[in-house]
Amino acid sequence: MARTVNEKLREERRKQIMDAATAMFSRQGFAESTIKDIAKEAGISHASVFLYFANKEDLFHKVVVEHLDAAKRAYLAELLVEGPPLSKISALIEGQIERQLKNVSFVSLIQYVVGYPERFPALATDLKQFVADFVDTLIPIIQEAQQLEQIQSGDAYYIAWSWFSYISGIGMCNMEYSEEGCKALATIGLRIFGPK
């Protein structure tokens, strides 16, 4: 029992550090953020951070990768469920727009990696793979929707990339979240797929 409690506390502390690091890296960038600042933001000692992460680079890498993993789990949950392809596409659109608008800090980290691929080559590779996996997952759903005549014909590869570009742009604009805004952006986003 004690071990389970200790593991839970350890996981909570790790999350506390990750959340503080996400906020700090997002506000100040990688270069300007220090482990001391992150520890202060998390409300823990500077030395405690090193019980969980080897250094600032390790912490930054894990923050970005874990956010990418969560984003992938979310889009797979929307796309790989039973149902008609247009329903999956609609769920994806609504979910991704909401996540982009609610997770501005994560979007800022992605922009940072994209802006400095030579500084973060492993993360840049992870990000490229994330996008490729996303597009590859979306293509057969687009093709199925086209075969069922739910959406207009066209090259599914470019339709998937157009959607990814649209959703990335929404994230970069740092729009304030609102349900009304999400619905409006989702309506416009659905037009990319050309529903009939």
Annotation keywords:
196 residues; mainly alpha; 9 helices; elongated
> Could you tell me the strand content as a percent range?
under 5%
Shape: elongated
The biggest sheet amounts to: none
Structural class: mainly alpha
User: How big is the Rg?
Assistant: 19 Å
Order of helices and strands: HHHHHHHHH
Distance between the termini: 57 Å
Give the number of helices.
9
- In helices, the fraction of residues equals over 70%
Unreliable segments (pLDDT under 50, ≥5 consecutive)? none
Please report the total strand number as a whole number. Answer: 0
- Which assembly state applies to the chains in this document? single chain
Mean pLDDT: 91
Would you write up a description of this structure?
The protein is mostly helical and 196 residues long. The chain is 80% helix and 0% strand. It contains nine helices and no strands. Helix 1 crosses helix 2. The relative contact order is 0.11. The mean pLDDT is 91.
